[in-house]
UniProtKB/TrEMBL annotation:
Residues 3-125 form the Hemerythrin-like domain. It holds the Pfam family Hemerythrin. It comes from the Bacteria. Signal peptide: none annotated. It comes from Azonexus hydrophilus. PANTHER family: BLL2471 PROTEIN-RELATED, DUF438 DOMAIN-CONTAINING PROTEIN. This is Hemerythrin. One of its GO terms (cellular component) is plasma membrane. InterPro entries: Hemerythrin-like.
């Protein structure tokens, strides 16, 4: 399995968790939305950590590029963390309108971010890290499962 395939699969998993939270919120069940969004948050934060602690450093070490696409991805991860935390706070406060506003902004940002990773960064990683991609995918699998 390539780096791109594995991380795209994880993007879809995170998207499914996000959709479950939105569905519960749309049904007016903020407790269920909070639980589902907590699962989404945990999965996304593990995904970010795997990229930031494993994938990006390996890519940067191989290419010497530390001010390029990985820097942009880290910045976007920070912005999405803030939106996720704001959405969690809105659910905890029982403010569905605020949650939906944060979730809409987050969804747009995630879609744009994932497109850049899936179509630009991950293929670059597969190309540059081809000789170690199997080990990297195994390490990422362990990290994303919380092992």
């Amino acid at each position: 399995m390539t780096i791109r395939d594995f991380l795209m699969e994880d993007h879809r998993h995170c998207d499914d968790l996000f959709a479950a939270a939105e569905q519960s919120a749309n049904a007016g069940d903020l407790a269920a939305a909070g639980a589902a969004f907590g699962q989404f948050r945990d999965a996304v934060f593990r995904h970010f950590a795997g990229e930031e602690q494993t994938l990006f450093p390996a890519f940067e070490a191989r290419t010497g590029m530390s001010m390029g696409p990985t820097q942009v991805m880290r910045m976007e991860h920070g912005q999405m963390r803030e939106l996720i935390d704001a959405a969690v706070d809105a659910l905890q406060d029982g403010n569905s309108e605020e949650f939906f506003g944060q979730a809409e902004t987050l969804l747009i940002m995630m879609q744009q971010h994932n497109m850049k990773e899936e179509n630009v960064l991950y293929p670059m990683c597969d190309q540059q890290l081809a000789d170690s991609s199997g080990l990297l995918v195994e390490r990422l699998q362990a990290e994303l499962k919380g092992a």
